[in-house]
Structure formats: C-alpha cells, structure tokens
Amino acid sequence: MKNSKLTVKEIVIIAVTAAVIGVIYTLLDYAYMPLSAVLGQVFMEITFGVYLLSAALPMYMLRKPGAAVFGALVTAGVNLLLGSPYGIQLVLAGLLQAAGVEIGYRAGEKYKGSMLNILLGAVLGALLVFGRDCVFFGTLSLGTPVWLGILIVRLLSAVIIGTILVKYITAALVKAGVLKGFACAA
C-alpha cells in the first residue's frame, strides 16, 4: 500500500457518498419498524447488507485504513441529523460494522479490495453488530431457532446483498468518472 493517508478528494467523495447513504438509511429506518412487525424480525434481517454499505462502500472504494470508520461516522451523523429513531445505537452499529470491515481488509489481502477482503469484512461486521444486539437487545433470549435464524439471514445478507451493492455502486461511480485515481478504478 503506497500512501495510506487520505487525500482531500478522497475525504470529499467519501463524505458525499456516506451522506447519501445516511439519507437512504433514514428512509429505511422509518420503513423497518412497520415492516418488521408484519414480516417478522428474521425476514427483516435481509436488509442488513444494505446497512453494511456505510462502512463497506468507502473501504472498497479507497482501500485505506480508516475509510470504513470515516464512512460509517458520516453516515451515522447524517442519519441522526435527519431524525433516525434509533439514536446513538446506530452510531455504535456503524462503528462495529466499520471495525469488522477494517479488520477484514487488514487481515485479508492487505487492502487489495479482493473478494476475501469484502467477505471477511462483511462477516466480521455482521458478527460484531450481532454481538451488540445480544448485549443491548437480548437477542439470545428469543430462543435458539430465532437468534440462529437472525444470525444466518444477517450473514447471508451481508455477504450477498452487501457485496453486490458495493460492487455495483462502485462500478457505476467508476464508469461515471467520479472515482478517477481511486484504488478501485485502477
């Protein structure tokens, strides 16, 4: 990895991208509660891959230490400012997802943006947020079939939906010329 310091252009692009994700999250937040009441909690875990974007997309675009944390914090800030009903828990979830993604990129193929990096980051991010859910929301008390279903669906969502969205959005931004000079455009 040549230069791990973020440039001004990288900071601006990630901040704008993360802000857009924050707006999308706010819309999803208000749909999540009524939909989970109708469709059930396990089914709603399908959306986890979308929520992984705040950390996974910036890291895949930049492939530099701190990109996932920066993206997650900007997204959480925008989400909070727009009135998300989840408050400080969304900051914690974002930081945990970012920690998982950061570890996945560091432990895998050292910030290459390989499938190993993406998958490790997605799985670790999902597991860390699941740990938070167990501590703060008593997920394990729901009974083994339910919490196991939640975990399996969340992991599948993180790996499948998270990966597809990250790759698709990045490819679109590269094609548009927005990410010229970024690691993902090389």
Q: Mind describing the biggest β-sheet?
A: none
Distance between the termini: 13 Å
Q: H/E series, N to C?
A: HHHHHHHH
- How much of the sequence is in beta strands? under 5%
Instruction: Figure out the total of helices.
Output: 8
- Uncertain segments are none
Instruction: Output mean pLDDT.
Output: 92
Structural shape: globular
Q: Round the Cα radius of gyration to an integer and report it.
A: 16 Å
User: What is the total number of structural domains?
Assistant: 1
Look at the helices and sheets and give the structural class: mainly alpha
The proportion of residues forming helix, as a percent range, comes to over 70%
Number of strands: 0
Describe the structure in your own words.
By secondary structure, the chain is an all-alpha fold. It has one domain. Helices cover 75% and strands 0% of the residues. The protein contains eight helices and no strands. The protein has helices spanning 8-39, 41-44, 48-51, 53-62, 67-81, 88-107, 115-137, 144-175. Helix 1 (8-39) crosses helix 5, helix 4 (53-62) packs parallel to helix 6 and helix 4 packs across helix 8. The longest helix is centred in the first third of the chain and has 32 residues, at 8-39. It starts with 7 loop residues before the first helix and ends in an 11-residue tail after the last helix.
Topology:
Blueprint: H1 8-39, H2 41-44, H3 48-51, H4 53-62, H5 67-81, H6 88-107, H7 115-137, H8 144-175
Relevant terms:
mainly alpha, 0% strand, 8 helices, 75% helix, 186 residues
